[in-house]
C-alpha cells in the first residue's frame, strides 16, 4: 500500500509541478491560464460563475491541523537557508488551502486535475479576500509533514515557491481522504 501511495504521490507531484510551474511567479491569479489560453475566471457572487463553488458542495474531508502546523514550522525552519524571513500563518490562505485539499479528497485524489471548478488554490485565496497570493504547492500521498516538506525542497518548482522571499504569509491545508492525505500550501505577499 505504501508503494502505491508513493507512486501516486510521485505522479501527483509531477502533475502539480506542471500545474504550479505556470502560477509560481505570478502575483495576480488572473494571470493563470486554465482552459487553453483564456484567463481563469474568478468565481464569486455576481461574477457569472457557479456559486457556491463546487468544492463546497460535497461533505468535506476532515482537516489535519497538527500536520498543517508542522508544515508551517518546517517551512519556517528552511526559510533562513534561502535568505528569507519566516512566514506568518494567515487565516484566509489556510481556508483556501483546506478547501483545495478537501476538493482533492472529494474528487478521489484529483481525477479532475489540480483545478476544481476552474480554480486553483490561489484563485480561492483571492476569492476569499486575500489580495496577493503568490504561489502554491499541491500534492497527495505523503504520510507525514516531514516527508512532504523534504520532497518539496528537492523539487525545483516547489522549492521556488518556498524560497519566495517576498512572501509574508502561508496557509496550509491538509486533509485525510479515503485515498490518503492531500496537501495544499499557499503563500502570499500580503492581504
Write the layout of secondary structure elements.
Layout (H helix, E strand, L loop, with lengths): L1 H20 L40 E2 L1 H14 L9 E2 L1 H16 L14 H7 L5 E8 L4 H9 L2 H7 L6 E9 L2 E9 L3
Parallel strand pairs: 2-4
Antiparallel strand pairs: 1-4, 3-5, 4-5
Helix pairs in contact: 2-5, 3-4
N→C terminal distance? 41 Å
Q: Strand pairing plus helix content: what structural class?
A: alpha+beta
Contiguous runs where pLDDT drops below 50 for at least 5 residues: 1-57, 109-113
Total strand segments: 5
> Tell me, what's the shape?
globular
Strand content: 15-25%
Radius of gyration: 15 Å
**Helix content, binned percent:** 25-40%
Helical region count?
6
Structure characteristics:
38% helix, disordered N terminus, 191 residues, alpha+beta, 5-stranded mixed β-sheet
Please, could you describe this protein's structure?
- There is one protein chain.
- The protein has 191 residues and is of the alpha+beta class.
- Helix content is 38%, strand content 16%.
- It is built from 6 helices and 5 strands, in the order αβαβααβααββ.
- It has helices spanning 2-21, 65-78, 91-106, 121-127, 145-153, 156-162; strands at 62-63, 88-89, 133-140, 169-177, 180-188.
- Strands 1, 2, 3, 4 and 5 form a 5-stranded mixed β-sheet that branches.
- Strand 4 (169-177) and strand 5 form a beta hairpin.
- Helix 3 packs across helix 4.
- The longest helix is centred in the N-terminal third of the chain and has 20 residues, at 2-21.
- It starts with a helix and ends with a strand.
- The relative contact order is 0.23.
- Mean pLDDT is 73; it is low at 1-57 and 109-113.
